[in-house]
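question for whoever is on the cluster today: can someone run the full assembly for these? two chains, 844 residues total. i dont have access anymore since they changed the login thing
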Amino acid sequence: MKRAVIEFQNFSFQYRAQTEPTLQDINLTITEGEKVLIIGPSGSGKSTLAHCLNGLIPFAYPGEMTGTMRMMGQEQKELGISELSNIVGTVLQDPDGQFVGLTVGEDIAFRLENEGIPQADMIGKVAAAARAVDIHEYLGAAPQSLSGGQKQKTTLGGVLVNEVGILLFDEPLASLDPYTGKKAIELIDRVQQETGKTVLIIEHRLEEVLHRPVDRIIVMSEGRIAADLTPAELLSSDLLRETGIREPLYLTALRYAGCPVTPEMNPQNLAMMELDSCTDKLQAWYDNHGAQPESPEYPPVLELRDISFGYEKSRPVLQGLSLQVGRGEMLCIAGRNGAGKSTVSKLICGFYRLASGTILMNGRDIGSDTIKERADRIGFVMQNPNHMISKTLLYDEVALGLRQRGIMEEEIGERVHGILKVCGLYPFRSWPVSALSYGQKKRVTIAAILVLQPEILILDEPTAGQDYRHYNEMMEFLLDLNQQGITVIMITHDMHLMLEYTERAIVLSDGIKVADDRPERVLTDTDVVRSANLKETSLFALAVKAGIRQPVEFVRRFIAHDRRSRGQ
Amino acid sequence: MRATMLAYTNHDSGIHRLTGAAKLIFFAVWSVSAMITYDTRCLLVLFLFSLFAFKISKVQFQDYAFVLYLILIFFVLNHIAIFLFSPLEGVRIYGTRHDVVHIAGRYTLTWEQLFYQFNIALKYAVVIPMALLFLMTTDPSEFSASLNRVGFNYKIAYSVSLALRYIPDIQRDYENISFSAQARGIDISRKEKLPRRLKNIILILMPLILTSIERIDKISTAMELRGFGQKEKRTWYRARPFARNDYIAIGIIAGIAVLTAWITFYDGSRYYNIFK
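^ ran it for u. tokens below:
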């Protein structure tokens, strides 16, 4: 019998500012060397659970604890945050925000520096930790020059350097593109196998984490543990749909095809899954769901012709890019970090000047228009809503752009109220912005742009950091806007978003357009997928495995069907 | 992102190889010496020395050109202000009066005033190159290690290095925020009238401050989780022990400080007087 490293017994926790406990009646034991995934929607208490483990609760976020919680056999209450950090190494969500060193080497050494380890010992330990996470060639590199994946490796190195027994990953996939996320899951798996450490992963993206096996999955829901099962058992149950976590897409497809999933089929891993009993049903489902109509022709509203741009002359970010956007279309621009996708939107809005090429709007060259003039027709919503909100009251925030344009207060009131109704924010119209949730704030920023009545709406990562339910709400809302005639351009590397809500995906790589096609065709093209740090969708892999002759069309029929059944 | 001004550039030179602590001590003593003395002979020698230091540092002109121009503008403004507020300061200090030309009212240009302002100009010329050199040849992380070594609490020293770490990120935040604000019609360019412009700047600063606080919160959590501030002392991954050249540099600055102080004060006045 292996020894228990973490034990919760009838454990509850209530933040000081809350009226109800965030965690209730938690009973959980994790033994040495286990790899456990903790999933749950936003607000289910999974992050609070993580904070209890690494000691941020109660040391940084005070509150009331009842019941017991033991780490390595010792009461958590009796350990300080620094003693706990010798037991649990935490890799936080955003690798950028926790990078404290000016170079990779210093960041990894940070923990040792704080322990007062002599410099001579430190150098060897840092080198060893860096090698374990495969970042040793970048020891002298500055954080700004690293990719998201490299930053995360550095952070993991900084935790491993300290010989902790438990590794805790708090939403490790949140700010990574699909390919880098896959690599991160592989890295976690490799480190766990090489070191035998206990690994806890907190995430809501189930399919992505299951890229490598886990021993157990704990499902959190409304502050309680809703399930504690092996992956195979969990995926064969209805629990995921009940708690609002997205099941792997291939399992949804099997469900639509009327094919029951059992633990014996190995549903946790598509490559190893037993599908013999399902192939006929999948084929039948495919045949019964007719071909999807081609997307309609849209008259062009925005056109980029042969544009080039670079922040420095010697390093072009975009080279000879041409693309067209149709009126009323909903499309996305994808590509890995640094591929130039954000730059495109900034050029369209006029934040930077083109080096060469032209941008046409309704056939007219808008090269000489100012930012403000372009903003009357093209709205831009940034990824982080906190970057856009400058007023304390919701109403004032939405009215800001109109007031700056010198519109009469009466008309402003009418337009603001109208937009708030469209955005579902009308009940909050007299609220302060700070009282709203993250998703609501995001809506406020969209409302503040929509009120200027743009023809085109550009959104940078509209669903970043949101769980499945909020993702759905946001995207259905954008779809609604689109159906009211607004052209929507989204910059994203979220593959679900691409597949489910766009008719066209433009993929950039190193400043060049490498694809411009229907998303299901883009996401099944291996070369494009690789160049843009995307991932092949599991639906395609399922269709291939089941022997369906037109796997791309299968993906398309599935998405259309899925959208209809979710819309109900 | 655009090139950063006045940032550390990694060239290989004798100046770069000195430890941060040695450079910090050198710069501090150098500045105090130059501030105290009004002895033209000392200032001239120091000035030549600083030019020589610049030459061996291999720092490129374009790396500091912008800052230098900025300093020159302030330098000129400062001199005009000195003359406007106190046109006969030189006469008061040196005790004689030799007029060059009468301008208007109480404003007469005197040789004493010209000489006095020339000395002030020399002080600028002595301190500024060294300040630039110090900033551009000291690795920021080594800088905080050296602050700690010369006696500052490590928490203060580290916050300096963190500030340096986050300058590019905050610049980027600012750029994004101001872009989206401009798109909503918040104009901060000269086209807008001043009161409105100030109001608009506040609209941009609000989100910048809030996101920066968010950042600080995140980073301090991350640092706490990695044991920062738990112990009395900490070590530094990038610290370097004093080498021979560091001792030589300290020796040189000690010599300079003693010599300038002696030359300046041995006749009882800080001012070197050519009018007697």
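summary bc i know u wont read the tokens: Chain B touches chain A through 52 residues (CB under 8 Å). The first strand of chain B starts at residue 99 and ends at 104.
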